[in-house]
Amino acid sequence: MSSFLTPPAASEYAPFYHTYVRLIFGEPLAALREQPRELRRLTEDLTEQQALGRYAPGKWSLKEMLVHMMDTERVFAYRALRIGRGDPTPLPGFEQDDYVPASDADSRPLADILAEYDAVRAATLALFESFNPAAISRQGTASGQPVSVRALAYILPGHEAHHLNLLRERYLPALGK
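Structure for DinB family protein, as requested:
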């Protein structure tokens, strides 16, 4: 039985991440495999102009949100890699509000963003599928807080589930969809 089937204990991640962990029911790698289909379904009819839409002033555009999801996935996967391989080095945090404007997401075609998303997700799945039970159970430190590879396997799709909810509940209605 995969060690990912056992949800992480609260001691395996910072309390902030409970918001994401609680969004994953069942096996987290199954969520990682299903989310790209859901994202494509939600974005398949969007125009470039709609993908620049924001659900409120000062919020990220839909394109910016998608690139933020990829940036976060890369950071969380990198943390899982380092911790899973037994690297004890404390890992720094990252400031999402600095990354988003630097991404220049709004200048990119939506199709290119979605193609990159598929590549990032394929790499993430390959990484998590490569971990043995010992690696899954390893714990390290990221952003000054404890985190396990198991917790990252839940946090990562939980973060995306949060943003897919925003897409359904805020972005699409603001775009008249």
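The radius of gyration is 16 Å.
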